[in-house]
Amino acid sequence: MNPDQYFVFIVDDDPSMRRSLESLLRSVGLTPRSFESAHDFLLAERPEAPSCLVLDVRLPGRSGLEFQRELINSGVSLPIIFITGHGDIPMSVAAMKAGAVEFLTKPFRDQDFLDAVHRGIGYDRDRREKSAILADLQERFKSLTPREREVMALVVAGRLNKQIAAELQLSEITVKVHRARVMFKMRAKSLPDLVRIADRLTADSLKS
Amino acid sequence: MLKPVSEMPDDQKFLVSTVPPSREQTRLAAWVMLVLLLALIATVPFARVPLDNTEVLLPAYATAVLMSELITSALLFVLFSIQRSRAVLVLAIGYAFTALMIGPWVLTFPGVFGASGLLDAGLQGTALIAAVRRIGFPLFVLGYAALKDAGPTARDMRGPAHRVILGSLASVVAAVCGLTWLSVTGDEVLPRLMADNSQVSEVWRYVPASASVLCLAALALLWFRRRSVLDLWLMVVLCVWLIETFLLAYLSAGRFSIGWWAGRIYGLTSASTVMLVLLSETTALYARLARSVSAERRIREGRLTTLEVLSASIAHEVNQPLASMVTHADAGLRWLERRSPDLDEAKAALKSIVSDGHRAAKIIESVRMAFRKGTQDRIPLNINELIQEVLAHTRSEVRLNRVSIQAELNGRLPLVIGNPVQLQQVLFNLITNAIDAMSSVTDRARVLRIRSELHKPDSIMVSVEDVGIGLDAEHKDKIFEPFFTTKSHGLGMGLMICQSIIEAHGGRLWMMNNIPQGAAFHFTLPAELA
């Protein structure tokens, strides 16, 4: 993907600071979108592309840390880079613990800032890719019939066709057909491949 | 001449013998006088009715007088040891003397402990003791009044206080013993004060007359030199003493009549009055001291946070444009270093750097203004005048926002000690906040109510109330924290600094929701000690 399809959201109440960050990000080919307040940011539509959020700790109405909590609670998993004029250690620890990418004290070195932004975008891209793959796998799994799902579960558990046939009271031939359909629908090249796919799906269902 | 309180050493400003009476105390003294006068008038018609066999009550009366006068004397001696005022010493000696003289008086009193008293004094002995007491007390008060404006006597009172006190007590005891001995043994040489056991002679007439004259003289002197709580109550005591003398000498029908007993009760009243005043004042002063110690501690802590807050605010405010400048410069460099340099972007970055530089300079200038000379000085202020001045300054903003002002200023407030610039800053901040809070109000009249009132006897309260959007419970706790703001252009410093200023003045600033809508900010300031 092109860098100019990477978005960086900026929330800072200082207009000059916003302009300077925009200019810096544009100079390296990223696409900045800046907002005066957290409220404006929430109202805006966000493009479905790898992105990260640059957040000033001191915001009108509420602090950046509170806003971070709100975002996490509402399921927005955007990597956050905090910038602050008066950072202290407890504040940065709290931010990092809540999953911030970086906590920078103004004025910061531009390279530190850009590194953090790229790292944030990297995380977001990975996350997006992972969730895309997972969505794809779930899609495939949904296309299985109930019987095929049963067969898949037993295959992944390491049972032989004969054992599966006995357990489901089917003929071995039928099991083989189901098994081939499972391999095809799940686009698994081999048995270990199918086991890996099954692992990913169960890990995700455990998570949710 | 009245001496300004401020010339006294600090630790003596609050003593009962130096602190001026409050309006309440003066009123109370007047009431006490009125009641006693009414009691006197009520007694007059029955003054001559004799009360037989009431001699037995005399020892109880004497004990009561002895105790209260001794306690008073002890309290006055303690007062002397702190203030080292010769006037107070004279008064303490006076009380000790009259207290101790009551002993021989009751012991020699005919008919109480045997027909001619326990100490076998003649007829004249008891009368002599009574005469010395009657004339002695106003004499001592006169001495006090005459000496009280002599100024601090540190020069000649430098010796240890306890030695002076012990010496005085020894002299008093010696004088009392001497007089007792004289009255017991020298009946023949004594003046004929009594005609018989209950009737006085012609010579006695001189005693109440001279006592009254002395009383009046002391009263007059105290009246012109009155300054302290002690002076006020001593005047009451002298009046009571005068009434007592009058009753005993001119209205009663000799010993043990109603008039005579009434006079005795007056005597007891006068003895207890000063004691009660001294005790209550001591306790009140103790409470006041405890309060001022804690207030002082608050002020010290307040100052510390003010400094911290100010430095944090300066650092933050200057840092903001600095950070922006650095980032603009970085961006500009990157635009120039590109394979095809973008001069327009670089130029825009440089322009922003210039404006950020000016912004930083403005912040530094405003900080300098805040610290400029004079912001530390404190003077007595009329808070209402201050409010009016700030209202005059905000008039254009008020008109622009179509806000109507309701000022309810109590014109009879005491002065406060404070820094006019800082307090104006507080008022200005609260008023502009209130106006801002109502800027989005369209469905009701925008009313800003500002009130000044007496909070407690020793503090005033100013309230600034709006009918604006008010504050959520969640924000309410945070408004005094640094960097908290609900405005898009606020620094989040205003209320925090206001609070620091008010607390540094020994007051308190808090916020409540206004009913039915809006916010109400209140602050208190301690009144100047009148």
- Lateral arrangement of strands in the main beta sheet of chain A: 2-1-3-4-5
How much helix, percentage-wise, in residues of chain A? 55-70%
Order of strands, main sheet of chain B, comes to 2-4-5-7-6
What are the segments of chain A in which pLDDT stays under 50 over at least 5 consecutive residues? none
β-sheet strand percentage of chain B? 5-15%
Helix content of chain B: 55-70%
Instruction: Determine the strand fraction of chain A and express it as a percent band.
Output: 5-15%
Number of strands of chain A: 5
Q: Topology as H/E string of chain B? A: HHHHHHHHHEHHEEHEEHHEE
**Average residue pLDDT of chain B:** 80
Distance between the termini of chain B: 18 Å
What string, H for helix and E for strand, traces the elements of chain A in order?
EHEHEHEHEHHHHH
Task: Please summarize the sheet with the most strands of chain A.
Answer: 5 strands, parallel
Number of beta-strand segments of chain B: 7
List the quaternary state of the chains: heterodimer
Main β-sheet of chain B: number of strands, strand sense, barrel status? 5 strands, mixed
SSE blueprint:
The complex is a heterodimer of chains A (208) and B (530).
Chain A: E1 7-11, H1 15-27, E2 31-35, H2 38-43, E3 51-56, H3 64-73, E4 80-84, H4 89-97, E5 102-105, H5 110-142, H6 146-156, H7 161-168, H8 172-185, H9 191-207
Helix pairs in contact in A: 6-8, 7-8
Chain B: H1 23-43, H2 57-83, H3 86-107, H4 123-147, H5 161-185, H6 206-225, H7 229-251, H8 258-337, H9 343-370, E1 379-381, H10 383-393, H11 395-400, E2 404-409, E3 416-418, H12 420-437, E4 447-456, E5 459-465, H13 473-476, H14 494-504, E6 508-513, E7 519-526
Parallel strand pairs in B: 2-4
Antiparallel strand pairs in B: 1-3, 4-5, 5-7, 6-7
Helix pairs in contact in B: 1-7, 2-3, 2-8, 3-4, 3-5, 4-5, 4-6, 4-7, 6-7, 7-8, 8-9, 8-14, 10-12, 12-14
